[in-house]
Amino acid sequence: MNLNKATYFTTAFRFALIGAVASSGIVSGPSAAASPAKASSCSATFAGRIAYTTGAIHICDGATGADVNTGASGVNPKFSPDSSLIVYQNNNVSVMSSVAPFAHWVVTAPGFTPSFDPTVDGTGLTQLTHDGGHQPSWSANGTQIAYNAPVGGSQQVFLVNADGTNPHQALTSASVVDTVWRPSPKILFGLLQANRDYDLYSYDPTNQASLTRLTTIRGNDDEPSWSPDGARISYTSGSGGIWIMNADGTGLQGPVIANGRQGSWGN
């Protein structure tokens, strides 16, 4: 069953703080104890790995079908660009290694955190948004960030330069959720339909006519993630579980993970 979206906005945000860990001086805590999940939860039908949550953070290996419980509890797991780390949210925002023994670090204190951009050496955190921005996602070239912010009672897609300049609304639409961008030039998000369900859409911010509907299944299709090469998409389906499809919405396959949500596709 999908999370209530109002609850989701206040309890499940995503952002890239990977650079802040490298030189922050934060000492890793004890490694989390990992354990296998149910064999039926993960299917060996795709390339790479998908990190997802059942309340606990799991990693599904698409080549072998191995499904590992990392021992960390949280939501919104996201692979770093090189797939070596996973950022996730619990009472804090934390980062852990994506391989056993899954050493982890706390990156922020509890409480709502706007979108931030750490400099390359992890110093000088800069607040990028001042309008309730959340769910930020990098552009493929790292020069811009897409995020959601409220406008007139609905969530809209905004863009901002990585240095915090030129924030602007990228699209006027019904309410959106789960904005993701890198590595494709197209932004993915769930868009509210007239029947109150969310379906997945893609949008190229350089082409105003590019808004494309990707899913039509009854129920909420949301929580998308691009494959590392930008050719495929994983998402949480209204039919249950995590599914994958081609970038144009064809080649639907799933569920590749029967019990889980908030998948993040990495190498």
Strand content of the residues, in percent? 35-45%
Order of helices and strands: HHEEEEEEEEEEEEEEEEEEEEEEE
Q: Report on the biggest sheet.
A: 5 strands, antiparallel
Instruction: Tell me the overall shape.
Output: globular
> Unreliable runs, pLDDT <50, ≥5 residues?
1-39, 107-123
- Total helical segments: 2
Rg for CA atoms: 17 Å
Number of strands: 23
Helix content: under 10%
Q: Architecture in CATH? A: 6 Propeller
CATH class placement: Mainly Beta
Give the CATH superfamily.
TolB, C-terminal domain
Number of separate structural domains: 1
Strand order across the biggest sheet? 1-4-3-2-23
Report the span from N to C terminus.
Answer: 28 Å
- Examine the coordinates and then state which fold CATH places here, giving the name of the CATH topology: Neuraminidase
**Which structural class matches the secondary elements?**
mainly beta
Mean pLDDT: 76
Explain what this protein looks like in three dimensions.
This protein is mostly beta strands and 267 residues long. It has a single domain (5-266), classed as Neuraminidase (6 Propeller), CATH 2.120.10.30. It has 2 helices and 23 strands. The chain has helices at 5-11, 18-22, and strands at residues 35-36, 49-53, 56-61, 67-73, 75-79, 85-89, 93-97, 104-106, 116-117, 126-127, 134-138, 144-151, 154-161, 168-169, 176-180, 187-192, 198-203, 212-213, 222-226, 232-236, 242-246, 253-257, 261-266. A 5-stranded antiparallel sheet has the order 1-4-3-2-23, with no helix packed on it. Strands 5-6-7-8 form a 4-stranded antiparallel sheet, with no helix packed on it. A hairpin with a 5-residue loop joins strand 5 (75-79) and strand 6. The longest helix is centred in the first third of the chain and has 7 residues, at 5-11.
